[in-house]
Amino acid sequence: MSQITAPRGTRDIVYPEVARWQMLEEKVRAFYSRFLYREIRTPMFERSELFQRGIGDATEVVQKEMYTFEDKAGRSLTLRPENTASVVRAAIEGNLFDVVFPLRFFYIGPMFRYDKPQKGRYRQFHQFGVEVFREDKPELDAEVIYAAYAFLQELHLRDISLEINSVGCEKCRPEYLETLKLAARKREADLCEDCRRKVDTNPLRIFDCKQPGCREASRGFPTITSHLCDDCTEHFIGLKAGLDAYDVNFTVNERMVRGLDYYTRTAFEITSGQLGAQNALLGGGRYNRLIRDLGGPDMSGIGFAAGMERLLLHLDSPPPREPRLCFLACQSAEQRSLAMRVARGLWESGFHAYVDYSAANLKKQFRRSDRMGAAYTLILGEEESARGAVTVKDMERQEQVRISQQELVQWLKQRDK
Ligand code: AMP
Question: Does the global pTM surpass 0.85?
Answer without folding.
Answer: yes
